[in-house]
Amino acid sequence: MKFDQTFSKVSLSRLINRSDIYHDNRLSNNSVKDQVLALAQKRAKEGFETTPVGLNVTTKNKKKIYQLEDISDELVLRKINENIKYFSNFKLIDRDSIIFTLLSLLKETHPYTVIRLDIKSFYESVNTDSILLKVNKNLFLSRQNYQLLKSFFSFLKREQITGLARGLPLSATLAEFELNEYDKTISNLQGIYFYQRFVDDIILIVDPVSDISKLQQKLKDDLPTGLSFNTTKTKIITVDQTGNKGSTDIIETLDYLGYHFKLHTLLEDYQHKQKSLRRIEIDISEGKKNKFKSRLIKSLLDYHRNQDLRLLTDRVKFITGNFSLLDRRNGIKRKSGIYYNYKYINYTESEVLPNLDNFFRNILLVPKGKIYSKISTILSQQERRNLLKLSFRNGFKDKVFHYFSPSRLSKIKRCWEYV
Question: PROSITE patterns given for it (predicted)?
Answer without folding.
Answer: RT_POL (PS50878)
